[in-house]
């Protein structure tokens, strides 16, 4: 692949390769010397048009640990504020010869459009409600390390599915790897047509969690509910917030995940989120750095291979 724009175009073997490489970076990141030269001589530009804590910091750290020159564009201070378009901004940066462009944008499809206009490898760091591929990959790595496999697991994705690019990328990935995916939430927050995609849909949380191996909670994304129905937080927590009573319906060794940022007391009880025997939320953050290192390393290998082929006239 030239870019990482979504999970949709990836073959299961490519997913496995990314996770295998990421596993090796987990080991590197746990050592005192956390450095490799995989991106030495390369330039990585991070463009975040939406707020981020985990994704932006882990992409920056990943690039630096791999030896890249990393630049974080401050979109608030950029000429976007003077009316420059996304494409003109990307073309301007492209003229400075970056090798990797990491982009988060509030509009679905914006990152794909940008990838058509630039010469470098583009990584989607989340576009609207569309995809968040590195989140799904880090979730997959977390599950594989906790459960010892990434197939034939029963996984419940719970809450605000309708506004979630995390849910979309995860259900595509987990389906490709032959897992049983359940979507659990209020009908207003589950898009139509999910059963046709092979998911089981549950309105009742206790039924939806029955005997699952993995419980993946999602943030209630009020900022994307433009004018639509917004549930009351109290009522939402009562019916769909993960607490000990609801979690008791999952398998006794089921793990609890959340991509962050969390609304404690809305979609998840704080004591469950902090329970180190069940929650792998901090491991997800750790896997985020390793997966982003792997994704950029593999794209850089492809860039170098196609440049070598072009230099030898075998394109
Ligand atoms: N999970 C996730 O994308 O978090 P950030 O918005 O903090 O990057």
From TrEMBL:
Quaternary structure and interacting proteins, as annotated: Heterododecamer (2C3:3R2) of six catalytic PyrB chains organized as two trimers (C3), and six regulatory PyrI chains organized as three dimers (R2).
Protein name: Aspartate carbamoyltransferase
Swiss-Prot/TrEMBL GO biological process terms: 'de novo' pyrimidine nucleobase biosynthetic process; 'de novo' UMP biosynthetic process; amino acid metabolic process
Function: Catalyzes the condensation of carbamoyl phosphate and aspartate to form carbamoyl aspartate and inorganic phosphate, the committed step in the de novo pyrimidine nucleotide biosynthesis pathway.
Positions annotated to bind carbamoyl phosphate: 54-55, 104, 132, 135, 260-261
Organism superkingdom: Bacteria
CC annotations in GO: cytosol
Binding site for L-aspartate: 82, 165, 219
Family: Belongs to the aspartate/ornithine carbamoyltransferase superfamily. ATCase family.
Catalysed transformations (reactions): carbamoyl phosphate + L-aspartate = N-carbamoyl-L-aspartate + phosphate + H(+)
Keyword annotations of the record: Pyrimidine biosynthesis, Transferase
Residue ranges of every copy of the Aspartate/ornithine carbamoyltransferase carbamoyl-P binding domain listed in the record: 2-144
GO MF assignments: amino acid binding; aspartate carbamoyltransferase activity
Keyword Transferase among UniProt keywords: yes
PROSITE patterns registered for this protein in UniProt: CARBAMOYLTRANSFERASE (PS00097)
Organism: Pacificibacter maritimus
Gene coding for it: pyrB
InterPro entries to which the protein is assigned, alphabetical: Asp/Orn_carbamoyltranf_P-bd, Asp/Orn_carbamoylTrfase, Asp/Orn_carbamoylTrfase_sf, Asp_carbamoyltransf, Asp_carbamoyltransf_Asp/Orn-bd
EC number: 2.1.3.2
Gene3D superfamilies, per the entry: Aspartate/ornithine carbamoyltransferase
Lineage: Bacteria, Pseudomonadati, Pseudomonadota, Alphaproteobacteria, Rhodobacterales
Domain Aspartate/ornithine carbamoyltransferase Asp/Orn-binding as annotated: residue spans: 153-298
Signal among keywords: no
Pathway: Pyrimidine metabolism; UMP biosynthesis via de novo pathway; (S)-dihydroorotate from bicarbonate: step 2/3
